[in-house]
Design a protein that fits this description.
6 helices; mainly beta; 19 strands; Porin; globular; 14-stranded antiparallel barrel
Length: 381
């Protein structure tokens, strides 16, 4: 782009602070933030956990196994709460079962960067300031269908808008908008008896945010969407009618080109790498599996993984813990998560807390996050 908004840089700086020069960057990085407290407490994962109202973000195919006929979910996540108090991520999701085999859902995720006071001169800022409220949001619509009793698939369509660019001179800021699609699958077995317990196997995948690049200006470079491949599995240890323990593992990879074009200084020394701007969206997805400068070994480093455990008592109280890991060359995010969940009649209340396990500055460190789910209609499972 001719001019990169300082806000976008500010957000990216904290998202990947202490990052090395081969960190993969994209537009609208807020899409990679876990919107709900349950998944956040499990190490930022949800592609293969049991279905809930926030499945729209992690794996829409899970809606075919949704626990109730109707669900409404609300979440609020303070961002950079150590520095400011008006940057946040909010999520609102509604799903409805059509019949025993299908369901649909709509969702809105809104990321606000707070209020910014600006102007061309110090005098203008004091006497006639320009107040800006930059933000980004995405509208999702999903449809899930069971192909058999144990496996479902879903399609998702999204509309994204990023309004981050600050006006300069006589030029007004212009929001960048685009659309994207995704496809996902989810497997959930019947309860299987073992010697001392019974169990349920789960597995899932989700390829999300496939769409045209974001362009903030009529001319200049554009940003890839954070096209993601998520896949993982999990198992429920069902000890009796009251006690259950779920353990799940998830892997994630950005399907965008690796920073492979060298950036040099005036003396010709390589100071870093940037993403190739001429690569298209679809070709970038396929090239993302083999374009890292150091070959296959570096490609493996572009995968993140998360391990989570959830203990449930009487389907009414849950304790959760998780760990998220990212390679040092690709961002070095490593953190431990803790959380709890409570069910009261038709309301689910979830809380989560993040503890950084590295020197990287995490915008959500020591932040208490919460989400609410309202369940209506008859229970399906």
């Amino acid at each position: 782009m001719k001019q990169l908004t300082t806000l976008f840089f500010f957000f990216g700086l904290f998202q990947f602070s202490y990052a090395q020069n081969r960190v993969i960057t994209t537009g609208v990085p807020f899409l990679n933030i876990a919107p709900d407290a349950r998944s956040a407490a499990l190490g930022d994962q949800g592609v293969a956990t049991s279905a809930d109202a926030f499945s729209n973000h992690w794996n829409p195919a899970k809606f075919a196994f949704a626990p109730n006929e109707i669900g409404v979910a609300i979440s609020y996540t303070p961002y950079l709460s150590k520095l400011v108090n008006d940057i946040f991520l909010a999520d609102l999701t509604y799903y409805r079962a059509i019949d025993d085999r299908s369901a649909w859902a709509v969702g809105l995720r809104y990321f606000s960067l707070g209020e910014i006071i600006t102007g061309n001169t110090a005098e203008e800022i004091l006497n006639n300031p320009l107040i800006l409220r930059p933000n980004e949001f995405v509208l999702d619509a999903s449809y899930a269908l069971k192909l058999n009793d144990k496996f479902s698939m879903a399609v998702q369509a999204s509309f994204l808008t990023s309004d981050l660019k600050l006006p300069t001179g006589n030029n007004e800021s212009v929001a960048a908008s685009t659309v994207s699609v995704g496809i996902s699958g989810f497997y959930e077995s019947y309860e299987v008896p073992y010697s001392n317990f019974s169990g349920i196997w789960r597995a899932g995948f989700n390829i999300s945010n496939i769409g045209p690049k974001l362009k903030y200006e009529d001319e200049g470079e554009s940003d890839f969407l954070p096209t993601n491949l998520k896949f993982g599995g999990g198992f429920d240890f069902i000890f009796d009618s009251y006690n259950k323990l779920n353990v799940s593992l998830e892997f994630n990879k950005l399907l965008v080109p690796s920073p492979s074009e060298p950036v040099t200084d005036k003396d010709g020394n390589i100071t870093g790498y940037k993403q190739p701007s001429e690569v298209g969206v679809l070709s970038g997805i396929f090239k993302s599996f083999g374009d890292a400068p150091d070959g296959f070994n570096e490609e493996l480093k572009e995968f993140t993984w998360a391990l989570g455990a959830e203990f449930m008592y009487d389907e009414s109280f849950a304790l959760r813990a998780g760990y998220f890991n990212e390679n040092e060359l690709k961002g070095a995010r490593k953190f431990i998560t803790l959380g709890a969940g409570f069910k009261y009649n038709t309301i689910d209340i979830d809380l989560s807390y993040l503890i950084s396990a590295t020197k990287v500055v995490n915008p959500l460190e020591n932040t208490l996050r919460f989400s609410l789910t309202f369940n209506f209609g008859e229970e399906r499972y």
